[in-house]
Amino acid sequence: MITTFEQIYDLLRSKTKKRLVAAWGVDDHTITAASKAIELGIVDVTLVGDSAMIAKVCEEEKIDMSIFTIFDYKEELKAIAYAIDLINAGEGDILMKGLCSTDKYMRAILNKERGLLPPKATLSHVSVLQNPNYKKLIILGDMAVIPAPDLKQKVAITNYVVNTAKALGNTMPKVAFIAATEQMLEGMLACVDAAVLSKKCDRGEIKGCVGDGPLALDVAISPEAVEIKKLKSPVAGDADCLVFPNIESANVFYKSNSQLMKGVKQAAIMVGAKAPCVLSSRADSIETKLNSIALAAATAK
Amino acid sequence: MITTFEQIYDLLRSKTKKRLVAAWGVDDHTITAASKAIELGIVDVTLVGDSAMIAKVCEEEKIDMSIFTIFDYKEELKAIAYAIDLINAGEGDILMKGLCSTDKYMRAILNKERGLLPPKATLSHVSVLQNPNYKKLIILGDMAVIPAPDLKQKVAITNYVVNTAKALGNTMPKVAFIAATEQMLEGMLACVDAAVLSKKCDRGEIKGCVGDGPLALDVAISPEAVEIKKLKSPVAGDADCLVFPNIESANVFYKSNSQLMKGVKQAAIMVGAKAPCVLSSRADSIETKLNSIALAAATAK
Which residues of B touch A133 (CB under 8 A)? Predict the structure, then answer.
C-alpha cells in the first residue's frame, strides 16, 4: 500500500506511461510542470495550443520542445475542444488545464456533444494529502466541485475516494464519514447521512471499503482520541479516506493542511469524467502540480 | 494586542482575579486544573461538591485544600444548581463543568427559572488557537453548539468572536466570513450569508470590527494566497476572527489544528450565558484546560 507521494512516482515509473493532454498548454506554468513530469518519467505529454507561444516559452525556460507532442491550434477554445477530442478518441488518458480559464475548461468538459462527461455521471473532486503527523496518505472529497452534496452525491463521492485508494494499492480502504461529532444526533443532517452511508457500506451497497460514521475529525484520525472516548469503530483512528458532509468543511480541511502546517504534500484531481482532469491553479507550487499529475496518472484507466 | 496565550496569563495576573465556580468539582481532572490555575495566579476557585470526595482527591494529588472555597453539596444535581446560583448572585464570574455529564451541565444552564441564559440570548461557542505558523491568535466560532446557524445566529457568532478579540486587547478585529471560495457564488448559502454579514459590518449593524467575506480559508489567513489571487480586501491575509458557515467546517478547522499540527495551543468556552462557561472534556490536556480557564477569565465581566 502506498503511503507517500514518492511511492506514487515509483509506481508510475514501473508501468506503461499515461498520456497527458494539456488544453491550451501554452504558458510557462503548464509547460514547466509538464516538462518536469516527463523528466520524472511519470507521463508522456501532448500540448494543444499555439506552437509559436509554446516555442517562445520553451526557449525562455530552456526546455527541449521535442519532448512534447504538439498540436498547433491558434485559438484557445478550439485548442480546448481538440484536447478533449483526443481524450474521447483514446489518444490521451489525462486532461490538464493550461492557460485557459477554469470556466472555459469546465464548460468544454461539460459540453453535451463534445465533452467528457458520461451520461448521469457525477463530476466531483478528490484530494490527497501527505501530512507528516499522519501515518499514511489522506484521501478526501469533495472540497471543490459539489457545494452541498445530497445522499446520492455522497455515495458518488465515497466511490471516488475508494477508487482512488484502490488505485494506490489499498485493497480495502477505511472510510470515515465526517460530522462535527461522533454522537448519532438525529437533528444534524451530517450525522444522519453518515449513518446511512455507513449502513450502505455494511450492506455492500457501497462496495470495497469499510465505512463508519458519524465520526468527528479527531476520532477519525487519532487513535488517542478513540482511546480516550472509548469508541468502538473499525475505522476510527485509522481512516484512509474522509468523506466530508459539505464543501466548506472539506475545503477548510484541505486548506488548514496546506496553509497552517509545515511539510504537507498535496494533490487534487477532478473525477467523474471519462479521464481524470488536472485543474491546478497558478497559486499551486510546482510540487503540487506534479503531485496532481502523478495522482491523475495513477488513477487513469 | 495579545498574540499568545502567555500574554493572556500576564494580563490576568495584572488585574483583579475573577472567581471560577466548579459545578460538581469533585474529580482529579477538575481539581488539579483548578489548583494549577490558582498557582498561576489567574483565578480564585470555588468548588461546589461533596467535600469528602474533594478531600480525598486533594490528599491523593497533594493539593492544599485550603486554597479553595468549598460549598459542601452531597448530590450532583444540587451542586450544579447551587454553582449556578452563585453566578446569578454575583458570587462567581466563570462557571466550569466538573465531573457531571455535559447533558446535566447544559440542562442546568438552560433551566428557565434557575439557569444562566438571559431572555432571547443565543448560546454559542468560541475557540481560540495559537498556531506557530500564524502570526497571531485565531478566534473562531462556532465549532460545538449551533449546528446550522441561520443569518441571525451568524450575527450572534460574529459579535461573540469580536467581543472575545476586544477582551484580548484588539480594538478593531478583522473578521473573515468563511466559505469554500472567495467568488461570490449566489448558489452557495455560505457565500450569500458571508456577503450579507460583510455588508452588516460596513453599515455598522455589526459593530466594532472590519468584516469581509466570502473568503476561502487560504485567502483569509495567507498574504501569499491574497497576492497570487490579486484579491482586494481589508481582512484577507490578516484575519483575527473566523466565522464559519456551519458547525462541521468550524469543528474540522479546530480539530485539524489540534490533531495534525505540532505546537498548537488551544482554548474554548461557551458564551451567551450570564458568565462564560468552561466545558472542557477529559480528553483535553491540562494545558488546554488552563488556557480555557484563562480565556474565560479574560472575557468575564
Answer: 259-262
What mean pLDDT is predicted for residues A261-267? 95
Mutation for testing the A interface, residue in B224, B248, B255 having most A CBs under 10 Å: B248
pLDDT (tens digit, 9 = 90+) per residue, A228-253? 889 999 999 999 999 999 999 999 99
Beta carbons of B246 and A248 less than 8 Å apart: yes
Show residues of chain B in contact with A218, CB under 8 Å: 255, 258-259, 283
Substitution target from A154, A183, A222, A260 for chain B, most B beta carbons within 10 A: A260
Closest Cβ opposite residue A218 in set B147, B187, B259: B259
Distance between CA atoms of residues B48 and B89, nearest Å:
15
Q: Point out the residue among B188, B258, B283 whose CB comes nearest to the CB of A147.
A: B188
Q: Copy the grid coordinates of residue A199.
A: 449502513
Contact call for A133 and B283, based on CB within 8 A: no
Residues of B in contact with A178 (CB under 8 A): 248, 252
Distance CA A23, CA A19 (A): 13
Question: Quick one: B120 exposed, middle or buried, by C-beta within 10 A (0-12, 13-18, 19+)?
Answer: exposed
What type of residue sits at position A105? Answer: Y
Number of other CB atoms surrounding residue B27 within 10 Å? 17
Residue A5 Cα, gap to closest chain B Cα (Å): 18
B277 dihedral zone (left: phi>0; alpha: psi -120 to 50; beta)? beta
pLDDT in tens, A74-132: 999 999 999 999 999 999 999 999 999 889 999 999 999 999 999 999 999 999 999 99
Q: What is the pLDDT of residue A297?
A: 98
Q: How far is B5 from chain A (nearest CA, A)?
A: 18
Is A148–B189 a contact, with Cβ atoms under 8 angstroms apart?
yes
Alpha helices in B76-188 (DSSP H): 76-88, 102-110, 151-167
Kindly give the confidence (pLDDT) of every residue in chain B, 301 residues in length, as a single tens digit, with 9 standing for 90 and above. Answer: 899 999 999 999 999 999 999 999 999 999 999 999 999 999 999 999 999 999 999 999 999 999 999 999 999 999 999 999 999 999 999 999 999 988 999 999 999 999 999 999 999 999 999 999 999 999 999 999 999 999 999 999 999 999 999 999 999 999 999 999 999 999 999 999 999 999 999 999 999 999 999 999 999 999 999 998 899 999 999 999 999 999 999 999 999 999 999 999 999 999 999 999 999 877 788 999 999 999 999 999 9
> Which residue in A38, A25, A35 sits closest to A71, CA to CA?
A25
Widest CA span of chain B, in angstroms?
A: 64
Residue pair A177/A198 in contact (Cβ under 8 Å)? The answer is: yes
- Closest Cβ–Cβ partner in B228, B246, B256 for A282: B228
Which ipTM value was assigned to this complex?
0.93
